[in-house]
Design a protein that fits this description.
Number of helices: 9
Largest sheet: 7 strands, parallel
Shape: globular
Mean pLDDT: 94
């Protein structure tokens, strides 16, 4: 049987939350496979840096993913750049801890609203814009949404942000629902769920000795290290590509062993 090829040469991909961290790493991988890529981020400076690094095969846009107009403009930019939209990778999101997320008895109204906006509402908006474009094109397309192992595998001793966990759990339910509804249009939707990865959001954990000791047990692969953005690239490229053309409604944990390890405190 022939080995599936990762051929992105005729693909146009949109990465929302793609100017830094996990999204930028994935954009690099997609460009290296031949895709045209549009990345979207909140910061003008990071967008300029990303565009310079990714080169002529990419474009960068600035916008707040929690606003519908950002997704609409990003999809339009991808279509203008590549002639069509083939895939969306929604990475945008973040911790709501500084807004008031935490253990449920301490959660503030602001923490609820901002955390859900960052991680769930933004995803629904970008997915909606992408699906509308896929349907305008006559069907076909792929969505990959960013989840987290915390959505289904809690770590209460160190990662008790309950609204964040709820948003990531909801991302799974949302993605499976749209995967089922649009399967007949050949629109696929999947979730990638990392454990702790070296990103700006992870700095609190990465600089905490107790959490690092916990991660050595909870993510035991390769010496118990914290994940790196590039650890997710292969999975992302696969799920966005034709090699996964018969895969939809699935959750792939890229977690260094988190979900099968106890990580006792």
């Amino acid at each position: 049987m022939a080995k599936p090829r990762v051929d992105m040469a005729d693909k146009t991909m949109l990465v929302v939350g793609g100017t830094t961290g996990l999204g930028l790493s994935a954009a690099r991988a997609l460009v290296s496979e031949g895709a045209k890529v549009v990345v979207v981020g909140r910061s003008e400076a990071s967008a300029v840096r990303a565009a310079a690094e990714l080169g002529d095969s990419a474009r960068a846009a600035v916008g707040d993913a929690t606003q519908s107009e950002t997704s609409d403009r990003a999809v339009a930019a991808a279509v203008e750049f590549g002639g069509r939209l083939d895939g969306l990778y929604h990475v945008a999101g973040g911790s709501g801890r500084r807004f008031g997320d935490g253990p449920l008895d301490e959660v503030t109204d602001g923490g609820i609203e901002r955390t859900l906006a960052l991680n769930l509402s933004s995803m629904i908006r970008s997915n909606r814009a992408a699906v509308k474009q896929f349907l305008r094109q006559g069907g076909g397309g792929v969505i990959l949404n960013m989840g987290s192992v915390l959505g289904f595998s809690p770590a209460p001793s160190f990662f008790a942000t309950h609204v964040y966990a709820a948003s990531k759990s909801a991302a799974v339910g949302f993605t499976k629902s749209i995967a089922a509804y649009y399967a007949g249009d050949d629109i696929r939707a999947n979730v990638i769920a990392p454990a702790l990865v070296e990103t700006p959001m992870a700095q609190r954990a990465a600089n905490d000795d107790a959490i690092r000791a916990y991660i050595r047990r909870k993510q035991p692969l390769e010496g118990g290290r914290i994940g790196r953005p590039e650890d997710l690239d292969g999975a992302a490229v696969f799920l966005l590509g034709d090699g996964a053309r018969y895969v939809t409604g699935q959750v792939l944990a890229v977690d260094g062993g988190w979900c099968v390890s106890e990580g006792r405190v």
